[in-house]
Amino acid sequence: MPFSKLGLSAELSRAVSQYAEPTAVQTAAIPAVLAGGDVLAMAQTGSGKTTAFVLPLLQRWLSAPHETPRRLHALILVPTRELAAQVTEVVRQCALHLPPQIKVVSAFGGVSINPQMMALRGGADIVVATPGRLLDLIDHNALHLSQVGTLVLDEADRMLDLGFADELRRILALLPKRRQNLLFSATFAPEIEALAQDLLHNPTRIAIESAPATAPVILQRAIEVDAKTRTQLLRHLIKTEVWRRVLVFVASKYAADLVAEKLRRGGISALSFHGELSQGARSQALADFKESRVQVLVATDLAARGLDIVQLPVVVNFDLPRSADDYTHRIGRTGRAGESGIAVNFITAESHAHFCLIEKRHRLTLAREQVPGFEPTEVAPPPTFGGIKGRRPSKKDKLRAEAARRARE
Ligand code: AMP
Predict the structure, then answer these.
(1) Which residue CA neighbors atom 19 of ligand 1 most closely?
(2) Domains, in order of start, for the chain
């Protein structure tokens, strides 16, 4: 079904004419949002979910009365600065051919608040914000939320994971009672279900496991290697397998700096990307990577969600992610928009048991590879008390169990 059959204006359909057809989440969400009701959508990044809510929001904005100062038509909350910048860009692209000029303001922390306060003078039609900075702006009287028509929570699961629950509660209390709510999440974890219960009225439920139009074709590999030879193996693979652009995930900021430095010493252009860098350095690293001025970006999980890097052929889990969900997000950085991609996991003696759990969660069984010259020699340490499976429940596990219990009641 073409975009034009989904109830969008010719100008909006034209803005997405580069796509052959809507993705599954777009086909389901666009008419539901246009109808004005609440929506609860489970969709991964890369499924086209951003366009799925941006297009109908713009369509609704077109038919709403336009006032001066501008009334905040939609508030889009996102978990990270990078996602805020990305969603803002999608709004601008989709609005490109619209006759009235839309004003979209992006608000996120880590940069001076003043330009954002200036940008909000005279109001805005759409604000894309991270929760903390939005509250700062409200405290500075730079905007108020009493007239918001639609609230979008994008990557709501990530927002809760990052500990934004309190900020969200404060923001929700400032919104008008009558409004449309759109909740997008990669998972329907119990906390999300609980949030949906509080927030949504009779929502249209959309669950997209994978989007045929953009279904990623990701080849997953598991290479056994000693922890201490991983950087050498990485260098070897970059050269022998001719990986022109690689996103490498590590467990800490320190490791990101160290691995990037070692790669540079080995003659490979590499930068680190993590939360301790200034916003300027992060944007610059990302721009250098996207525009192929550096070949390798060594990142913490900061880069695991939301980031849309077209033509990223390889993702390497140098350190394994902590959770099976993070695994999905990390490997989802490759194979975007229908391209194929490779996700390589380095499996050390120590991380082997953890990888087996990730495989189990994803019903995966990857063949173990060894690369000649890098065969592992380390043996697994004895299991810690109780083993991984038997570990004591974390605070998060307990919260989940509590939310699940409440949902059953
Ligand atoms: P998301 O992060 O889920 O918003 O997905 C964004 C990616 O999907 C971007 O690379 C878009 O260019 C791509 N995309 C969005 N809509 C479509 C579509 N209808 N067909 C193909 N690719 C799309």
Answers:
(1) 22
(2) 3-208 (3.40.50.300), 217-408 (3.40.50.300)
